[in-house]
Hints:
By secondary structure, the chain is an alpha+beta fold. The protein contains ten helices and eleven strands.
Amino acid sequence: MTPYYEKTYDDIRIFYADDFYFPAHLHNHMEMLYVVNGTIAVSIHNLSKELKEGDFAIIFPNTIHSYELNKTNTPCRILLTVCSLKLTNNFFKKITSNYPLDPFIPSEKLHENVGFAMTEIEKEHYHGSDLNVCSALIHLILSRTIPMLDLAKNQDLQNYDLTYKIASYVSEHFQENLTLTELANHLNVSKYYLSRMFSSKFNTSFNQYVNCIRVNYALTQMQLTDYTLTRISIDSGFESQRTFNRAFKEIFHLSPSEYRKRVMLPT
């Protein structure tokens, strides 16, 4: 399991993840997903699909998307690439001015170059990340996938969608003492209406949603740094390490120290 938070200023990030989970969120990078084995449920904008081995999905910038935990006992492994738009070369304009009506490409229609290129980007990134090489491989992937997508012009409708505004505001303020009342005031809606929105659109409560964003951000810090868990809990927006421990265990069924001891750096 290697969850992550995508509020990043890196030009590219690519990694394998097992039994991956992340609630509805968005970012200004492009994201590509390749299923190595198993199955995973993915939602992109208003479309949801269970992807299987060899399937591919592309997520254009500022598009709400989420990943669901595998409900079966079958192991699932995916390869994720999150990259800056400057690495998309000639596809930059097309990606920023359009969106795919269906962002999923099944394995039987996917060109063999795509899986190869995703794997090679991960190898390149792991061994030094020459951005020119990564950009060339990304261009190869886009050359094989974009022509297969039915693209529609952006009308900036997402900017007026309340779900988009919620995800965007929380992604910018989760490290603060964010409350439902503050979010409701910012969006100019009642907190009761907003609470119902979380239940209907995000399938969770406001507090659970924010805590999940914070926990996944904390996991990134556990992966990339040797910071103490106390510092990580504070940086992630939790009031205390005790609150962090409780939220972490509710999601992943083990404590942060147990998780770090098992798969990360020593505490």
